[in-house]
Amino acid sequence: MTQPTDIRRVPALLAGGMSEHMRTALNLAVDGLPVMPLRRGKLPFGNCPTCARNACGGRPNMKTAGACECPGPCHAWAAATTDPDVIASPAWASAWQRAAAAAYHPGGAGLTVVDLDDATAIAWARATLPVTRTVATTRGEHWIYRGPMPSANAVRPGVDIKSRAAYARWLENGTGVTAPLPDSVRALAVKEPPAPRRAPQSLTGPLGGRGGACPHRTPTYLDRGVSMAVQLITEARSEVHATVYRTFLAVLSTHGRCGCLTEAHVGRLFTAAQAKGESLRHCTDAWTNALTTLGL
Q: DSSP 3-state assignment of 100?
């Protein structure tokens, strides 16, 4: 944990000549935000030769062996600090002069940032998450909650979570009141359990079926249904995995019991899903889960 900032030292430091980013960082440190400089591309400064490949043992808050005392801003988020003497030290001053932005360690301040990368992600958050302090970003928004949690990338399309072992670029104070971290955000970082494994089903002929005459009037009915399913998958702009599963479920609920689905039909569905970025394993899992749900 970072040590509390002695705010009595900050006015004197701010009075001297310094870069805009260092001045921002010192002000943030007073508010208890552990800060660090970012170079171009929103990336942390690289480790010095002594600390390269964590040869030094890493920063103490990285929970690795040893305790690195490098005077520079090494080790990315783990170097973030509220100590004004460190922030304004010669080693850090050089980095601030070259910095493109100031960043902070949300988890170190007891915060979680839900990073929404585009308009679709923002619309999802507004419909799903509790209202909280919001900060506009270049393409989206940061929703900030009170309480730390594990960080996770790509928890949904266009949504990252930045808290412990992560950093977030400082942009502005934002608007609204910081709400407590809700369970709905914590749940985003929980990985889904693996799909139940079943013996692979042969698709070399008609699928399953109860035998007897097909209840569908013409083969055109089936072809039209599969074509519509392919179109649904192809036009999905978000939640592709969920769309694939729901579409597989719909096809199987209509055509999975009469024995008219063939390998060619299933192949069309799998091809459409893989074209949207789904792996063969994800397609197989979604198909298996749909079969299990319907008792086929």
A: coil
Question: How far apart (Å, rounded) are the C-alpha atoms in residues 286 and 280?
Answer: 10
Cα separation, 124 vs 129, whole angstroms: 8
What is each CA distance from 95 to 84, 116, 163, in whole angstroms?
15, 28, 24
What type of residue is 104? Answer: Y
- The 10s digit of each residue's pLDDT in 108-163 is 999 999 999 999 999 999 999 999 999 999 999 999 999 999 998 888 899 999 99
212-255 pLDDT, tens digit each: 455 565 667 777 788 888 888 888 777 788 888 888 888 887 77
User: How far is the CA of 53 from the CAs of 45, 47, 62, 74, 198, in angstroms?
Assistant: 14, 8, 14, 11, 43
The conformational region for residue 6 under phi > 0 = left, psi -120 to 50 = alpha, else beta, is beta
Of the candidates 184, 191, 129, the one whose C-alpha atom is nearest the C-alpha of residue 154 is 191
Question: What count of residues does the chain have?
Answer: 296
Helices (H), 19-150: 20-30, 84-87, 90-98, 119-128
User: Do the beta carbons of residue 87 and residue 71 sit within 8 Å?
Assistant: no
SS3 assignment, position 169: strand
Can you tell me the distance from the alpha carbon of 20 to that of 93, in angstroms, rounded to the nearest whole number?
A: 11
> What gap in Å lies between CA 265 and CA 260, rounded to an integer?
9
Q: Which of 207, 213, 212, 253 has its CA nearest to residue 229?
A: 253
pTM as predicted = 0.61
Q: What is the C-alpha to C-alpha distance for residues 198 and 259, in angstroms, rounded to an integer?
A: 20
